[in-house]
Design goal:
There is one protein chain. The chain has helices at about 15-25, 50-65, 95-110, 125-140, 155-165, 170-180, 200-205, 215-225, 250-270, and strands at about 1-5, 5, 30-35, 70, 115-120, 140-145. The longest helix is centred in the C-terminal third of the chain and has 22 residues, at about 250-270. It folds into two domains: about 1-150 and about 255-280, 3-Layer(aba) Sandwich (Rossmann fold), CATH 3.40.50; about 155-255, no CATH class. The chain has nine helices and six strands. Helix 3 (about 95-110) runs parallel beside helix 4. By secondary structure, it is of the alpha/beta class.
């Protein structure tokens, strides 16, 4: 439902055509937020749809606070590196690129000029950024891919944790997010007796120390040495060396709020800038 451009529902698929048209015609600076995630193994305790569930919660909250429309065009992402674990569903790179491009193309044809792509799976990184660049060129629309915040106390703590423990997949950070957003899908009990399963050359563990003067260099050497399929370096599917059981819903809530507010501030600032002439017909 929409009245004079003000939405009461924010998912594109829940709006009637007249409601979408009312929003598009009366909202001064309409923004469509596209979320992408994945269907892939997330250790023994997190749902296969972790990234897409997270994307849906995230973009909906942003849309609600900014009178934007949100859309989650697909559940899978680009996850061939997770295919050693059963349950993973991966798109080919060209498939995911086409899904994002076709989504932008369709809505651009209806008059949407501002898009945000919110990515929640590292494996999609290069693809969604390429989609943003190509969509701007092909469809003459603005496409933003905000990232932040990075300077808050919590953001700095999470960055150090990622560097020090490689807490990037199914560790305390992601587990905290899940415990906040969808605790009913988390099976912490499956971590009983958990120990790190990360396997690599002992010298590469030494490269995970962010206090090293050469950390910028050696961390990239470690990354270059990791096998392409993750079951070859972690039998549990958890990447990091820190215990996921230390996660907390309170941290997840704070992460979520900081991330959402960053996007809200981005959109509200973006709306103050008129559409440049180069994007007009």
């Amino acid at each position: 439902m929409s009245e004079n451009g003000k939405l009461k529902r924010f998912w594109l698929h829940e709006l009637t055509r007249p409601a979408f048209e009312d929003w598009l015609d009366n909202e001064p600076a309409p923004v469509v937020i596209i979320g992408v995630g994945s269907i892939e193994q997330h250790g023994p305790h997190l749902p296969l749809g972790m990234d897409s569930h997270g994307a849906r919660h995230f973009i909906y909250e942003i849309a609600k606070r900014t009178n934007s429309v949100c859309f989650h065009p697909c559940w899978p992402g680009y996850s061939p590196h997770h295919m050693g674990f059963r349950g993973t569903v991966t798109f080919r790179e060209e498939t995911l690129l086409a899904v994002i491009m076709d989504t932008v193309a369709s809505l651009a044809e209806h008059g949407v000029e501002r898009f945000i792509i919110s990515n929640h799976h590292g494996g999609n990184e290069e693809i969604y950024r390429l989609a943003a660049r190509l969509a701007k060129n092909y469809y003459n629309v603005m496409v933003a891919t905000p990232r932040g915040p990075s300077k808050t106390e919590l953001a700095q703590e999470l960055e150090d944790r990622q560097k020090r423990y490689w807490d990037v997949h199914s560790g305390p950070t992601e587990t905290s997010a899940a415990l906040h957003l969808f605790p009913e899908l988390v099976e912490i009990w499956r971590l009983e007796g958990w120990e790190p399963t990360l396997e690599m050359d002992p010298r590469l563990f030494e490269f995970m120390d962010p206090d090293r003067e050469d950390f910028e260099l050696v961390s990239q050497v470690r990354s270059a040495c990791m096998p392409p399929v993750n079951i070859d370096f972690t039998s549990s599917g958890v990447y990091g060396t820190n215990d996921p059981r230390t996660a907390s819903p309170e941290e997840g809530e704070k992460m979520f709020e900081e991330g959402v507010q960053f996007f809200v501030d981005f959109i509200e600032t973006w709306k103050t800038i008129p559409v440049p002439d180069a994007f007009k017909d």
